[in-house]
């Protein structure tokens, strides 16, 4: 395995010397470089890749044991080796039969949790489970961060047309008093249901926010049992939840075989289900399950997550491109870039192999993005004209949920135009000819033409959905989950731990002590002077 990346990079010698546009001499390219699965169409014809290279890449992935790794994940082997855990989030969207086959006796608890969640969603949205004063809940506040936040936030904003329960669901993540105040100003304590989501139930931000919201509720409603009635928790740490004051009956458990950033399918999705209803949530899981099936069954060269993983590695390692832009041309998917920053970069932003050896190659790309067309009026200037080549995933829906048909056409046209422009670019000669056609003299045109050159040759994928629904969103998220998993396998790292977030937490605690006790500790003079400055400025 040691030389695996050298072998991959060696495959790219021709790719470096050609432009993507020339590959379209092959009239069948658009057909040959596309995949249709689980309600999603992927066009990857604008990648710098020819058929023989794709075959070589697929063959290379096989020699890396990818087939076996996929089965190891689905069958519950402990592939998260540093934490000695299985990785079974796909099982949460599988039929009961599959759950029982993999989990054995533990399946009963998983199925019971799903049933309890569905029941609660029904009861709360129909007012059978009501407030301490016998009213119907109007609002839900989900408190959580990281994997206990991003998926819910994305689902809530992506599926607005499917909010069928009448409950307004809000999310609170950041440890910022302004964020707390802003949310609480929208809510009435009497009719708000709170869900604290924390796998560990020790996360500083979540705990601080939960305590503040609890205090707010107790000061607004003089009912001692309001917490027992209005509060729910989703966690693996039952002891800590009950110590906090949430009743055992109101805890939805999680399991250590579901990683935070892959947990939307578990009870972590409870607040989302409270917005889109039990059936909407089932459809979300159904879409993801269809993608799981495709991932397990399709041959590598027709397998959407594998093709996206391989072209991603091709771009990152063989061609040396360091970033990945996620550009949904869909307002509802505006939270997707942030969501994928966590799933991708927290999973694969590593430099040590599963065996604990230093890896000799780059891993996760720097993921960023924004909804189109807003991105066109911002950072896409750099994508067109800087030296940096930034591979891009465009995501677009054929239909919106609105009657503005002209808007829809313009949105789609812009999406397709950007992928074309990023690939084609504009040469000096083209720019000069255009300028002269617009009345500039040859001398003027030559002076300006260089400024108008666009480098082109930027690879992209375009993902097309008929419409964004719970089902297609589920498939889209599962697609990215599996792409990230495959890349982790091929980079030979563990995608399922996140030790890199720990040092910041430790130093955060140390700095908090230094701020309160005037300790100088062993912090840098920069940090110490910043502490001093902020303390001075915070004096009212
Ligand atoms: O769900 P929790 O235990 O509160 O964890 C919340 C988040 O914090 C951690 O530090 C990790 O960075 C995330 O992967 C995790 O999702």
UniProtKB/TrEMBL annotation:
| Reaction(s) catalysed by this chain's protein | alpha-D-glucose 6-phosphate = beta-D-fructose 6-phosphate
Q: What class of enzyme is it?
A: isomerase
Gene3D superfamilies xrefs: 1.10.1390.10, Glucose-6-phosphate isomerase like protein, domain 1 (3.40.50.10490)
Q: Where is the active site?
A: 346, 377, 505
Q: Name one GO molecular function term.
A: isomerase activity
List locations, semicolon-separated: Cytoplasm
SUPFAM superfamilies, alphabetized: SIS domain
Under HAMAP family, the record lists: G6P_isomerase
The entry's function note states:
Catalyzes the reversible isomerization of glucose-6-phosphate to fructose-6-phosphate.
Q: What name goes with this protein?
A: Glucose-6-phosphate isomerase
Q: Which organism is it from?
A: Thalassotalea insulae
